[in-house]
Design a protein that fits this description.
Elements (H helix, E strand, L loop, with lengths): L17 H52 L33 H6 L8 E4 L2 E3 L6 E5 L14 E3 L7 E5 L2 H29 L6 H4 L22 E5 L7 E6 L14 E6 L1 H20 L10 H8 L16 E3 L4 E3 L21
Length: 352
């Protein structure tokens, strides 16, 4: 038995009618008009976030560059100095990861492939806000807050993205380290004077014997990679002073003013200690031989007669000890080198 044929009706046909297609296109257009701006905003938001993250990496890299070299990259060196060594003493980068096949672009351009603006010691409103400024023009790819060589107004950033780089915490740490190193050098200078009756003329004089091996060499360079200045001050008959100086963050000699850090070492304490310790031994030996006839010439005759080695010839200032024959007392002329001014002689009050 044959099945009856089903009549061909509109409902059995495949495909869309014209009105259905028009409706579908209209819906797609509405959806596109809604989704496209949202997608665009998402893309731009992702670019902003990537640029902000990159600016953060650049800031960290510059602080590391500063810590190693004592300065920020010059404007001529630019951000590439964080990636490749521009020939700066202390450079131990790279300080950022260029990554990919275009490391130079990764370091120097934002997510819109526009160059970052790098401004060293920028004019900023409010003033003093930073020592370095790195700026991206942002979504509109136009700088709104200023330009290199002009004033940057932070409040006018609009969609500009930027990072401020200030070395304040690092500077404080470096200054603390410089003071610590000055104290170490000062102690070495005092000991050197105690042993030699003179301050060191060069760093080589105290290298090795007077410094901890872990500090030797590097101890003569401050945290800004500038050699410590060492000078000896001699004024008339006054005992000498040893002046140690770091030029500080600006690495420039300000004559002890500005950001210079200075430590002045007086020769009197170490010389006095040396003088007193030698005197104590010499006087004890002399007292044990009360029958020894004294000539009054300590270094040439009497010291040898007591079988004392020649280190007992001179006091802590390198001056010959004096001898009062009548009282049988050995004495030093003291800091001023004048035997007649007994007030500073050692022992006090003992003189010719």
């Amino acid at each position: 038995m044959k099945c009856p044929k089903t009549p061909l009706t509109l409902a059995n046909r495949s495909g869309f009618t014209l009105i259905e297609i028009v409706i579908a296109v209209a819906i797609m257009a509405i959806m596109a008009g809604t989704i496209a701006p949202m997608a665009f905003r998402k893309i731009e938001q992702a670019r902003e976030e990537a640029t902000l993250k990159e600016l953060s990496f650049l800031r960290d890299g510059m602080l590391e560059f500063y810590e190693d070299t004592g300065r920020f990259p010059s404007e001529a060196e630019g951000l590439l100095a964080l990636l490749t060594d521009p020939g700066v003493n202390g450079w131990s980068g790279p300080y950022v990861d260029g990554g990919g096949d275009e490391p130079t672009l990764a370091v120097t351009t934002d997510s819109w492939r526009n160059l970052y603006q790098y401004d060293l010691s920028p004019a900023v409103n409010p003033s003093g806000a930073t020592q370095v400024l790195v700026v991206s023009a942002g979504v509109n790819q136009t700088l709104d807050m200023g330009s290199v060589g002009a004033t940057w107004t932070l409040a006018a950033a609009d969609d500009d993205l930027y990072v401020l780089v200030a070395p304040g915490p690092l500077e404080r740490a470096k200054m603390h380290e410089a003071h610590r190193e000055l104290d170490i050098l000062g102690a070495a200078g005092r000991q050197y004077f105690a042993n030699n009756a003179a301050f060191p003329n060069t760093s080589a004089d105290i290298s090795g014997a007077y410094l901890d091996p872990g500090l030797d060499g590097g101890a003569f360079v401050d945290p800004w990679l500038t050699n410590y200045e060492m000078t000896i001050s001699l004024v008339g008959t006054q005992p000498p002073y040893w002046i140690l100086r770091s030029y500080g963050p600006n690495r420039s000699d300000d004559g002890g003013a500005g950001d210079d850090m200075t430590l002045t070492i007086n020769s009197t304490p170490p010389a006095r200690n040396t003088t007193q310790s030698r005197l104590a031994v010499a006087q004890l030996i002399l007292n044990q031989d009360p029958n020894l006839a004294l000539s009054g010439s300590w270094a040439l005759v009497d010291r040898s007669a007591l079988n004392l080695v020649n280190v007992f010839d001179n006091d802590g200032w390198g001056r010959e000890y004096q001898l009062n024959v009548n009282s049988r007392l050995i004495f030093s002329m003291g800091p001023d080198g004048d035997a007649a001014t007994v007030v500073d002689n050692i022992p006090t009050g003992v003189g010719p």
